[in-house]
Amino acid sequence: MKNTKKYEVLREELLAFIKKNSLKQNDKLPTVREIIRDHKFSYATVHRTLMEMENEGLITKKQGKGLFVNRPVLQTEIKQAALIFPEHFSSHKIFLDILSGVRIALEKANVGLFISISNMSHEREKETIEKLISRQIDGFIIFLEDNYRKDYSHIKELKDRKFPFVLIDRFIPELETDYVVVNNSNAMFRICSYLKYNKYCDKIVFVPEFDSPDNVSSSEEKRIAFKNSIKFLYGDDEGTIISFEELLENLDTLSRRYRNLGISVNHDGIITDLNKRLKEQNRELPQNCHVFGYNNSFETPLFPTVEQFNEKVGLKAAEILIAKMKDPNSTPIQLKIEPRLVLPSGNGNFFIED
Fold first, then answer.
1. For strand 350-352 and strand 340-344, is the pairing parallel, antiparallel, or unpaired?
2. What stretches of the chain adopt beta strand conformation (E)?
3. With contact defined as beta carbons under 8 Å apart, do 111 and 79 qualify?
4. Which pTM was predicted?
5. 192 and 186 Cβ atoms separated by less than 8 Å
6. Which domains does the chain have, with CATH numbers?
7. What contacts 211, CB < 8 A, 6 or more positions away?
8. What is the pLDDT of residues 303-327, one digit of tens each?
9. Average pLDDT over the chain, rounded to whole?
């Protein structure tokens, strides 16, 4: 126990309190002041513990009313799964959609859910997995942090131990595991086809994610698929892949060189950042430039993009995990969800293609 962090000790004490008193959902918990007094921890420790427990979905804070049980402490005979995100699930729509799908499947199967955030830290991701195993978690759904291809020894260890886990959105080509991802290759070909045949683009460039390493499997797939698509559609063996800054610097030159320029990006955020930077420079996107986003990141689409059906991604990953927890020796399932294009309807709205 000497290496156990204070907030972890307090967490276990609060869980024991909930269990001992048979507290149910929406039952009120002691106040922060009472927890400090009764458990002899500092405000900083109590604050961190409560924040962690809220992230896990165990408790909820109601403004002006106090702390309440959000999910009763599960009995040991009920299976428990952990979902690990690289960032807080509220930071991106993709995480919220995945979480929604995971919850639907796990609740249907009466499997409990813990949520943990790695904060894009490889070490934290690794430590979190070890910690949750020690807490008798029965399986993982893991959205790997960006640099996972540099060291995935902890994932290989899970596989070697036949510990149930499913990778989500990203996979490790060098390691055969269960995973659920989006068919990025198919989406990229359809994007390029749309830009060529619907927008009459005689040139298409691809802008990769500016804050994500090149070896992330989803980003790598898009780059490869872009090059293959350009070769098929235009007979161009190279395919022009340029950075965000290169696009910003050369946008006017490119727009003058080609009748219609297509701009395909790795993520919707790149387009909003491009528009922001252009506005700061008192510039506008040339009218013959046609952008195409990815991942339908906004409640209302702002431009053509790709719907990945991330709720379905989460649901299928959870279903695979449930089956894996029943039979850890089963053959790995590697599922690719088919995306669809979100296209302008002609009246200012957008529709998802059939």
1. antiparallel
2. 59-62, 66-69, 80-85, 112-117, 139-142, 165-168, 179-182, 203-207, 240-241, 261-265, 289-292, 305-307, 334-337, 340-344, 350-352
3. yes
4. 0.75
5. no
6. 6-69 (1.10.10.10), 80-182+309-338 (3.40.50.2300), 184-308+342-352 (3.40.50.2300)
7. none
8. 999 999 999 999 999 999 999 999 9
9. 90
